[in-house]
């Protein structure tokens, strides 16, 4: 083109179009990798997490179903958000609390939620886990469940300074089946049954109770 202004305009349009093509190509590649990751992920031995919710945060967490992984307490990553590398799409986050003045043995379970369907803890760097929008439930306040009663008798009721502890599928299965039975006569019934059925399916576990969803 003899008109330099028109030439610059056309070059800018070509560059813009090429950038858009590259963006779409990268998005498609990212989506392919995501789908492949979902198809190939393996279930770890302890791929669930139990969180300590401090009393001041209980109300907020129960409304938002967002928990914090806390921070590394030592090493090169000290002070940075803890990476939950074992948590994958099959994982459950169990929320517990120990009220002020209570012993560790009195730690109670207050609720639970599945992570998102495409969640991989190794990719979460901000230290926040947001619950699945559908698979979540709360324990009725009038029927408290004590967390340590679901672990082996040889396990000492000791928490420490971490925000969460990993948990096995076997233990989580027992806990969720009992919560599901507890809410059998509440408005949470259908949602809890769907949650428990989804958990068993994602973890290749047999339900510990009969599941009948109308």
β-strand percent reads 15-25%
Approximate shape = elongated
Provide the CATH topology of the largest domain.
ph1033 like fold
Roughly what is the average pLDDT, rounded to an integer? 89
The CATH architecture of the largest domain: Roll
Output the radius of gyration: 23 Å
The major sheet is characterized as: 6 strands, mixed
Oligomer: single chain
Number of helices: 4
- Secondary structural class: alpha+beta
Q: Uncertain regions: pLDDT < 50 for 5+ in a row?
A: none
Helix content percent band: 25-40%
CATH class of the largest domain: Alpha Beta
Distance between the termini: 71 Å
How many structural units, i.e. domains? 2
H and E order: HEHEEEEEEEHH
Number of strands: 8
């Amino acid at each position: 083109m003899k008109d330099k202004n028109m030439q610059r305009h056309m070059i800018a349009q070509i560059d813009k179009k090429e950038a858009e093509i590259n963006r779409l190509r990268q998005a498609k590649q990212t989506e392919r990798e995501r789908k492949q990751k979902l198809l190939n992920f393996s279930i770890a031995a302890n791929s669930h997490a139990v969180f300590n919710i401090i009393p001041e945060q209980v109300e907020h967490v129960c409304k938002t179903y967002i928990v914090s992984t806390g921070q590394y307490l030592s090493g090169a990553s000290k002070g940075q958000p803890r990476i939950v590398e074992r948590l994958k799409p099959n994982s459950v986050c169990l929320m517990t609390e120990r009220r002020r003045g209570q012993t560790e043995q009195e730690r109670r379970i207050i609720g639970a939620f599945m992570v998102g369907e495409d969640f991989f803890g190794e990719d979460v760097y901000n230290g926040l886990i947001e619950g699945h929008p559908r698979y979540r439930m709360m324990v009725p306040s009038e029927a408290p469940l004590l967390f340590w009663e679901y672990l082996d008798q040889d396990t000492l009721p000791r928490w420490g300074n971490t925000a969460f502890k990993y948990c096995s599928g076997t233990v989580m299965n027992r806990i969720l089946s009992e919560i599901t039975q507890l809410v059998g006569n509440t408005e949470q019934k259908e949602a809890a049954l769907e949650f428990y059925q989804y958990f068993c399916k994602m973890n290749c576990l047999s339900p510990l109770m009969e599941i009948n969803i109308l």
